[in-house]
Amino acid sequence: MSMNLSNIDASFRCHSRNCFFTVMLLFASVSTIFGQEFLDRDVVEEKPPLKERLFYGGNFGLQFGTITDIQVSPVVGLWVLPRLAFAVGPDYRYYKDPYDETNIYGGKGYLQFVVIKDISTIIPGVSHTGIFLHVEDELLSLESSFFKGDSFSGRFFTNALLAGAGISQPIGKRSSLNIMLLWALYNPDYGLYNNPEMRISFNF
Q1: What is the reported pTM?
Q2: Total Cβ atoms within 10 A of residue 138
Q3: Which of 25, 118, 120, 140 has its Cβ near the most Cβ atoms within 10 Å?
């Protein structure tokens, strides 16, 4: 079954790269501004060893019924600075409706910058919730017959760039529950994302 989708041309791929570098530049600017404000507070803390700066996590989605939708996306990350984290990992999704089914797989990488580590330091009496910015780049392999029509065969790659913000709720010494709202800055017309895209993930 063909979905209402269009091919990616060279200009779109160029636009994707431009968006990526623009967002990275914005993140660098925000990191510099907030990093200067919190410099004195963060540098007095002894830098933890590498194994304590590593983290693991990801998101998992499961839906059964008329439509089956299974998503698995584990990550491994590193706190490169007290407020800046980088993570990478594989991405897999199985989708089936009454007419067809497909497997989507690939990889992603993201940056997170913590704007507020603990909102209770600003608003006393609220939970120890953090606020962060998030930018993510995904490279996915799609099945041509599913996304372009039965006359196509093989697979093709598509790239998407998402950015947004989220909150992080600690649920242990090193673990947290994260809820994000992401917007696709470059979203190929294959029906892969909503705007905004809501994601729930865990880190530990």
Answers
A1: 0.76
A2: 19
A3: 140
